[in-house]
Amino acid sequence: MEIEIFKLLIAIAGAIYFMLPAYVANLSGLAFGGGTPVDGGKECKDGRRLIGNGVTWKGLINGTILGTIVGAVLGIIGTFYGDLSVLTSGIIDLPVYGSIIGGLILGFLMAFGALLGDLVGSFIKRRIGLQSGEPAPIMDQLDFVVGALILSLLVVKISWEFFVIVAVLTLILHLGSNMIAYLLGIKDVWY
Fold it and tell me: For the chain, how many helices (H) and strands (E)?
C-alpha cells in the first residue's frame, strides 16, 4: 500500500514537472496579455464573436515565449540530472527534457499548444452562446491541457493513464487556486 502511494506521488510530481511549460504559458498568457484580440473583433455567421477579447496576440506571444523558456530550463536541468524517466525513477516513461534542444522543442509545443487549446475553447464557448468570462466547467480547466498534450504528441508518447493523472491534477490545482483567490478577494467567483 505504501509503495502504491509513493508511486502515485512520484507520478503527480512528474506530471507537474512535465506540464510546467503549459502551466506557465496558460498563466502568463493571461497575466501578460491584453491588447489586440486574435480574432480582430470579427464575428462568425451566427453573429457572435469568433473568439472574443480574452485571447490576445500579446498573450499568445508572451505565453508561448515564457513556456518555451521554461522548457529550455527543464532541458538544461535534464542534461545534468537525466530526463523525466530518470527523475521519476522510471514510473513515468517520457524520455524528454534530457537536452536543451529537446526542452526547447517540447516547451514550445506545449506552450503554444496550451494557448491554442485555450483559443479553441473560447471559440467553442462562443458557438454555444457563452460570453467571455462565463463559466464552462471542465472545458475552462482542461482546454489548455488538451491542446498542450496534443501538440506534445509530436515528440513524446503519452499513455492514457498519464493523461488522466494530468487532467485530474489540473482540475484540482485550477479549482484550488481559484478558491484561494476568491477567499482572498482577488477573484469575484470561486471557479
Answer: 6, 0
Which residues have CB under 8 Å from 171's CB, separation 6+?
Answer: 138, 141, 142
189 is written with which cell numbers? Answer: 467567483
Sign of the Cα torsion 168, 97, 88, 160 reads positive
Q: Which three cell numbers stand for residue 39?
A: 480574432
Q: Are 39 and 51 in contact (CB under 8 A)?
A: yes
> Which pLDDT tens digit goes with each residue over 17-48?
889 999 999 988 878 888 999 999 898 888 89
Instruction: Give the C-alpha separation, 118 to 108, whole Å.
Output: 15
Is the distance from CB of 69 to CB of 100 less than 8 angstroms? Answer: no
pLDDT for res 92: 56
| Three state DSSP letters for 91-131 | CCCCCCCCCHHHHHHHHHHHHHHHHHHHHHHHHHHHHCCCC
pTM, two decimal places: 0.88
**Cα separations in angstroms, 115 against 41, 151, 185, 191:** 18, 11, 26, 20
Domain ranges of the chain: 2-157
Q: Nine-digit cell at 83?
A: 530526463
User: With contact defined as beta carbons under 8 Å apart, do 152 and 181 qualify?
Assistant: no
